[in-house]
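Fig. S4 source data, part A: sequence.
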Amino acid sequence: MEITENAGKGFEGDILKIGRYTFKSRLLIGTGKYPDFQTMKEAADASGAEIITVAVRRIDFSAKENMLSYIDLDKYVLLPNTAGCYTAEDAVNTLLLARELGVFKTDLVKLEVIGDRKTLYPDNEELIKAAKILVKEGFTVMPYMMDDPVLAKKLEDAGCPVVMPLASPIGSGLGIRNPYNIKIIKETVSVPVIVDAGVGTASDACKTMELGVDGILINTAIAGADNPVWMAAAMKNAVEAGRLAYLSGRIPMRLYAQASTQMEGIVF
C-alpha cells in the first residue's frame, strides 16, 4: 500500500512485537486448503506476511516434496501449530516433536487445543494447561482462544506474550461477531492481541484492525478464494488500511448532520 511520507509519518516504525521478536507486517497467514503448493507460495508472496503457520501433523516429512519445499525459510518465519490436537498432552508432544525436527528456526509456536469437533472451539482448561507447560519448556506461545477477556488474562499470566481470540469459528468467513469482547480483551491484557479465525474478506480484515488489534491471522479466506493470490494482496492492503485508520483516529459518530463547510464567515 502506497502512503505519502507525511501521511504515513511514523507508520513504517509501527512494528508488531511478539515476545523478543519484531515484525513489520501485521498479517499472518496459514498454509492449509490451497489448491496446490505453488498457489500457496504465490499467495504468501502477495500477502506481504512474515509469519506463516504450518500444521505440524499435516506435513508428510517423508515425502520428496511437501509444503515446506515451497516456503523460503530465509524470508518467512515458520510458525508450527497444533491443529488437530484435542488434549494438552497431544499439543505439547506435537510441539516438542516439531522442535526436535529442527525445521522451525524459532521458538514461536501457535497453540491450538480443540474442545469440540463441530465448532472447533478451543478447550479452555486444556489450553491453559498446555500453555503453562510450553512456556516452561522455553516456547514463545501464541494461543488460539475464545473471545473471552478472562481467559485472555489467564493466558497472559501464564506467560503467553500474545493472545489470539477468534473473530468467529474457524473457516466460517462470518467476520468479527463480537467486536465488543475484542475491545475488552485489548483493555484487559498488556500483550498484543492477534485476531485468529473467521475473517471472510478484506472489509472484515479492515474493520477488525480498526478496533485496534495488533494483527490478524488469515487462512481460509485467502486459500478458499477463487483467486487466492489476489485475495492475499487484498488482505495485505486491508490490514494496512485498517491499522492506519485506527492510528489516525476516526471522527465521532453523530446522530445528525454536521456541515463540512462552516457557515460562520460566509459573506453572501
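Fig. S4 source data, part B ends here. Helices lie at 37-47, 88-101, 124-136, 149-157, 179-188, 202-210, 220-223, 228-248.
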